[in-house]
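Try this one yourself first.
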């Protein structure tokens, strides 16, 4: 099932809704995965660490870096293991970002993670939440909220982000789905 844009929220809402409450709504997407939520949660660090950006995404991320004045031309160092915990700097997993640009700010173990992004043109939060749907299936939600500074460069950056965020999020959700479903099940489903 392809990722889709949805405004509805899972039962109980999303923790991301409590962060950056004065932000502009950017987007929300879902995808269903043929695994239990615990299996999807356990796979997130592995899928992120194994992730490879293709040439199109690499170019888009580099263009974004250039607009922000943070372009880094050197090769990224090897990725360390990621821990899904508050305070973890995850910028190295998301592209060639400076330390502190992406930080985990909220975790509901096994259910939801919220990451803060902060740089000179914008501040935002994005999250991934998991909910069981049917037997052995999980719906993964991804939501993004952002606030832009209002300067001319920030307005240009907003156009870039709002235009490209949806396809990038959908690609990330598909990567998570493929990464989880390509592994043997832990027992209860498939």
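Now uncover the answer:
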């Amino acid at each position: 099932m392809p990722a889709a844009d949805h405004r509805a929220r899972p039962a109980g809402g999303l923790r991301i809704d409590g962060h950056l409450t004065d932000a502009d709504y950017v987007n929300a997407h879902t995808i269903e995965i043929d695994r239990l939520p615990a299996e999807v949660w356990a796979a997130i660090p592995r899928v992120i660490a194994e992730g490879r950006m293709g040439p199109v995404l690499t170019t888009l991320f580099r263009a974004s870096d250039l607009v922000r004045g943070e372009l880094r031309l050197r090769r990224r160092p090897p990725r360390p293991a990621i821990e899904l915990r508050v305070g973890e700097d995850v910028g190295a997993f998301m592209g060639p970002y400076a330390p502190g640009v992406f930080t985990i700010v909220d975790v509901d173990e096994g259910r939801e993670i919220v990451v803060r992004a902060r740089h000179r043109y914008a501040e935002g939060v994005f999250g991934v939440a998991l909910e069981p749907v049917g037997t052995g299936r999980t719906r993964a939600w991804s939501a993004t909220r952002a606030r832009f500074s209002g300067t001319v460069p920030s307005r240009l950056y907003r156009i870039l982000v709002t235009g490209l965020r949806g396809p990038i999020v959908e690609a990330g959700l598909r990567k998570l789905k493929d990464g989880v479903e390509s592994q043997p099940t832990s027992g209860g489903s498939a």
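Discussion: Strands lie at 4-5, 24-33, 102-108, 112-118, 122-132, 138-148. The chain has one domain: 14-181.
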